[in-house]
Automatic annotation (TrEMBL):
Gene Ontology BP annotations: proteolysis
GO cellular component terms, semicolon-separated: lytic vacuole
Lineage of source species: Eukaryota, Viridiplantae, Streptophyta, Embryophyta, Tracheophyta
Keyword Membrane: no
This protein's name: Cysteine proteinase
Length: 366
């Protein structure tokens, strides 16, 4: 008689736990879905439920049954990718995000956009800075130098958001005024080319490079306010730049050493930095500190480095726990309210490989 009673008790506990988990998922309206179940079979058995929750969460509708079924197959593959990413990156949380119905190629084409270029060999190098007195934690958001998280939409214009974010911070340091600047001006008007790569030019939604954007801004005289030249997420319109409405101007820009202490020193002294990164783990990222065991150094996404710190994650292979704080351009519904944390000290995902800093002219904006 004891065995059936134990079985009933176990079943009751399991059912109660399932309700708690379901209620927790339903109640986390401000977070992305966090359902990463233990094994692939359970993933696929519950895929229809997760897909239904995904469509509701992110307002997805599909024009035909064929498109719906196609996206469902991609979604199931991405459930397995999220599970794989969770194993490779245990200090972060991976799962269903707003990109879960996109193939990796679609995700790359629509939401990345950093041209795979080297920094020019003749680019100005940032001077070596002292590092002995660097604070253990630093975040430019706490000092008023970072605008709100923006959204590039389905346009490969990440490079423009990275460059604009750096200039917004530099302008704040120069003037004390935080101004949201126009990415659309770069998308429409910037066709600057890399001096060492023939045909490698900034191309709106087709990708670009942050140092090219700084060079354009220097030649054009500066950037307009976002409210005067608002973002559309399209690159087929005419250039509407009005030089009389310039809000911030570039004084100079330079590339920063691969040394992480120098990157930190430049961040603290010069403001947020434009950074390239490999975004392979970002499609499934929900939160935590991303520190994958394996990540390529091929840079395909432009982001903004705004700070660094240390957090409560402890992969056995690292005795220290430092991380970079990255502002992304996929809206606040992605990651940690639009931000990404990636471990610092090992050039993870190439985050130290393409770093540039910009200085602003001291002017008051219109």
């Amino acid at each position: 008689m004891a065995t059936p009673s134990l079985f009933f008790l176990f079943s009751l506990l399991l059912f109660s736990a399932t309700l708690v988990i379901a209620n927790r998922i339903d109640s986390e309206d401000d977070l992305l879905i966090r359902q990463v179940v233990p094994d692939a079979e359970e993933h696929l058995l519950n895929a229809e439920h997760h897909f239904s929750a995904f469509k509701t969460k992110f307002g997805r509708t599909y024009a035909t049954k064929e498109e719906h079924d196609y996206r469902f197959r991609i979604f199931k593959n991405n459930l397995l990718r999220a599970k794989s990413h969770q194993k490779l990156d245990p200090s972060a949380v991976h799962g269903v995000t707003k990109f879960s119905d996109l193939t990796p190629a679609e995700f790359s084409r629509q939401f990345l956009g950093l041209k795979p270029l080297r920094l020019p060999s003749d680019a100005q190098k940032a001077p070596i800075l002292p590092t002995s007195d660097l604070p253990s934690d630093f975040d430019w958001r706490d000092h008023g130098a970072v605008t709100g998280v923006k959204n590039q939409g389905s346009c490969g214009s990440c490079w423009s958001f990275s460059a604009v974010g750096a200039l917004e911070g530099a302008h704040f340091l120069s003037t004390g005024e935080l101004v949201s600047l126009s990415e659309q001006q770069l998308v429409d008007c910037d066709h600057e080319c890399d001096p060492e790569e023939r045909g490698a030019c900034d191309a709106g939604c087709g990708g670009g490079l942050m140092t090219n954007a700084f060079e354009y801004s220097l030649k054009a005289g500066g950037l307009m306010r976002e409210k005067d030249y608002p973002y559309t997420g399209r690159d087929r319109g005419p250039c509407k730049f009005d030089k009389s409405s310039i809000a911030a101007s570039v004084a100079n820009f330079s590339v920063v050493s691969l040394d992480e202490e120098q990157i930190a020193a430049n961040l603290v002294k010069n403001g947020p930095l434009a950074v390239g990164i490999n975004a392979i783990f970002m499609q499934t990222y929900i939160g935590g500190v991303s520190c994958p065991y394996i990540c390529g150094k091929h840079l395909d996404h432009g982001v903004l480095l705004v700070g660094y710190g240390a957090g409560a994650y402890a992969p056995i292979r690292f005795k220290e726990k430092p991380f970079w704080i990255i502002k992304n351009s996929w809206g606040e519904s992605w990651g940690e309210k639009g931000y990404y944390k990636i471990c610092r000290g090992h050039n993870v995902c190439g985050v130290d490989s393409m770093v540039s800093t910009v200085a602003a002219i001291h002017t008051s904006s219109h």
